[in-house]
From TrEMBL:
It comes from Ensifer adhaerens (Sinorhizobium morelense). The lineage of its organism: Bacteria, Pseudomonadati, Pseudomonadota, Alphaproteobacteria, Hyphomicrobiales. This is Iron complex transport system substrate-binding protein. It comes from the Bacteria.
């Protein structure tokens, strides 16, 4: 009985995979992306996805190559996309996140060939993961050369920023990069292994706090933790302004980094979990605000 059930499951799975659309020579690609990193990389490589998870969120928080999404259909949330919406789109490739969708890989593969980008590496190096994900996406899309050029351009532009920073008063400037958390008097802060913090260090800045690596590249901090920032540091806030939950505290204006004018709200879009364009855009915007 067990053997019979296993065989039936195998046959059903095989038939499902055979029924899933495949890309043939000359056929336009019908790509669906289920994570914003995958969406950004695909767009940067010249692809126009027919479906995107949390499309409005991407346009607001990431806002890279939005013109390439004018015809895209929203297929639900990034954590739990709509299988019905995906099936209706009849994609011939799904590009997504290993972190979010490893548990859904079999279901997704029954709809279309699926490539999960490794965005949570075992060594915790999240900047290296951006390189790995970009190369993997390029391979899946048949655009490996374009992916290599994209990463080479990222390296060149980051080196140019570093050369400029080194020769300016911002050279070695201690920074802490933070993101407000809705409804609580705490900030998400990016640790030494995060992509965004590693990028700022490569660009010529220094870490304002010695924060140990964390699995997802961030931790949280409250008012007491922010008090450890001295008046020479810059608090780069990925928001338009400080959250009211912090500003309403009597301690907030007394913090050295706040009293010295060291808080730098960079506004939106500011996506610290993105690809090469998101990261460079965030750095460029933050530097401009610090120089203003």
């Amino acid at each position: 009985m067990v053997i019979s059930q296993t065989r039936r499951g195998f046959v059903f799975g095989a038939l499902s995979l055979l029924a899933a659309p495949r890309l043939h020579a000359g056929e336009p690609r019908r790509l669906v992306t289920l994570e914003w990193l995958a969406t950004e990389i695909a767009l940067l490589l010249g692809e126009r996805p027919v479906g995107v998870a949390d499309l409005d969120g991407y346009r607001r928080w990431v806002s890279i190559e939005n013109d390439g999404l004018v015809d895209a259909i929203d297929v639900g949330g990034r954590q739990q996309p709509s299988m019905e919406a995906l099936t209706r789109l009849r994609p011939n490739l799904i590009l997504s996140s290993a972190l979010r969708h490893r548990v859904l890989e079999q279901q997704l593969s029954e709809i279309a060939p699926t490539r999960l980008l490794d965005d949570q590496p075992q060594d915790g190096d999240l900047l290296a993961a951006v390189y790995t994900a970009t190369k993997a996406a390029g391979e899946a899309l048949g655009r490996s050369e374009a992916a290599n050029r994209l990463l080479a351009d990222f390296d060149t532009k980051l080196a140019d920023i570093a050369a400029n920073i080194t020769d300016s008063k911002l050279g070695g400037q201690p920074v802490l990069i933070a993101q407000p958390l809705p409804g609580v008097p705490r900030l998400r802060i990016f640790t030494s292994n995060s992509a965004v913090m590693q990028m700022f260090v490569r660009a010529g800045f220094a870490a304002a706090l010695d924060l140990p690596a964390e699995p997802f590249g961030f931790s949280t901090i409250g008012l007491e933790g922010l008090a450890a920032l001295d008046g020479k540091s810059k608090l780069i806030l990925l928001a338009d302004e400080a959250p009211v939950e912090l500003e309403n505290s009597a301690l907030w204006p007394m913090l050295p980094v706040v009293a010295s004018g060291g808080m730098v709200p960079v506004g939106l879009p500011s996506w610290p979990f993105g690809g090469p364009a998101s990261l460079l855009g965030l750095a460029t915007n933050a530097i401009a605000k610090m120089r203003a």
